[in-house]
Amino acid sequence: GREAAETASETARKTFEEGALADTLPSVEVAKADLEAGIGILSLFVTAGLADSNGEARRHIQGGAVRLNDQPVTDDRRAVTLQDLGAEGVVKLSLGKKKHVLVRPV
Known about the structure:
- It is a single chain.
- The chain starts with a helix and ends with a strand.
- By secondary structure, the chain is α+β, with helices and mostly antiparallel strands.
- Helices cover about 35% and strands about 25% of the residues.
- Helix 3 packs across helix 4.
């Protein structure tokens, strides 16, 4: 309804105009131990629901559509670790301009 549309509009404005991480962005929880050991970007994209398979995620990377914390990813063998956590304590995965997921360690 109207309220949901206004919430979505505000989330989009914060995300794109201010570069802020809106609390209403979809998020997925990943074990902190996995981030300590380093989890592959391909499997993280599948876990986050941004790709259906590692192959699809790899094609997105090769096509230049993948960003990690708003930085382009060009290496499909990149590992995401605790060092990639932002100031908010999350990792932001983006596919294209409109699909974003926050990865929260638990």
